[in-house]
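Internal ticket #5521
Category: modeling
Description: The requester needs a full-assembly model to guide mutagenesis choices. All entity lines are attached below as received. Residue total reported by intake: 258.
Assigned to: D.W.
Attached entities:
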Amino acid sequence: MNYSRQRESIKEYLMSTREHPTAEVIYQHVREEYPKISLGTVYRNLTLLVDLGEVKKISTGDGTEHYDGDTSAHSHYYCRCCHRIFDVEVTPSIDQILAASSVGLGTVEQAALLFTGVCKDCINNDNNV
Amino acid sequence: MNYSRQRESIKEYLMSTREHPTAEVIYQHVREEYPKISLGTVYRNLTLLVDLGEVKKISTGDGTEHYDGDTSAHSHYYCRCCHRIFDVEVTPSIDQILAASSVGLGTVEQAALLFTGVCKDCINNDNNV
DNA sequence: ATAAAAATAATAATAATTACTATTTTTATA
DNA sequence: TATAAAAATAGTAATTATTATTATTTTTAT
C-alpha cells in the first residue's frame, strides 16, 4: 500500500475531531485542503482505514454510516433527532463486557454498544418527539 | 391506524423466526402468502412496527438493515462473512448495563450491544479471512 | 531519471430505501 | 347490509448512499 496525502488528510481529520462524521461530512472537510478530492476516494480510504483498524465505523441505522478516529474501547450515544453521536463511558466498560462475554458462536473481533435517545439539546429546542 | 393483513403477516413471520431477516427476505417470505404484496409495503410496515416498538431494527453496517421480532432485551452476534445474526445472552445483561449506565446526555430509549466476528460455520467452511 | 505499482478524479452503475398515486381495503355509521 | 370516509396497498418512479470503472496522476523502488 502506498502513501497518499488524501488518506492522511482523512485520517488526520478523524483523529482531530470529537464528532463522528459521515463520509459526506468528511468529504466536505477534506475538500478545503484538497479541492479536487472525489467522494469515491473518501469512501475507498475509509473502507481501507476501517480494515486496517485505524478507524471505526459506527452504524446507527439512520441511513448513513458514521466514522470515528478514536479506536480506543468506548461506547456511543446516538441522538435520533439531530443524528449526532457522542462518546460515553459505561460501567462495566465495553472491553470488560467483551472479556466477560463468552459468546461461543465464533471469533469475536469487536463489540459495539450503542445507546439511542433524544439528546438534551434536542429536548430543549423542542426538536424531540 | 387500521388493521392490515400484510402487516400481520410480516409481524407473524418476524415473531416465528429466530433469524434476523432483511426487508428483502421478509418480502420473499410474505409473498408466499400474499403474492401481490409490494416491497414498499414491507418497508412501510417495518418502519411502522419499529416505531410502535413491536419490532426491532438491527444495524450491522453490512449495507442493509435486519429486523427482529423478539423485543426482549438481548444482544446480538454478527458474522461478517455469512452476514447472519445470532442472539446472545451476555453478562451483565443489556438491561443491567442500561440500568447501570447514567449516560447523562439525554433520554435513553434503547441500548444495543453487537458483537462482530466470524462464526463457527464460516471458520469450518474456510469462508473466513 | 524512470518505470512499475498504486492511487486518484471523474463518472457511471448499483442497491437499498423512500415517495407518489390510482386503486383497494378497512371501518365506522346509517 | 349499504355506504362513504379514512387508511392501506400495489405498482412504479425517484432518491440517496455506496461501489465499480477507467484514464490519468502520484508514489516509490531502482
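Resolution: model delivered.
Comment from assignee: Residues 1-4, 6-7, 36-38, 40-41, 44-45, 63 of chain A lie near DNA strand C (CB under 10 Å from a C1').
Ticket closed.
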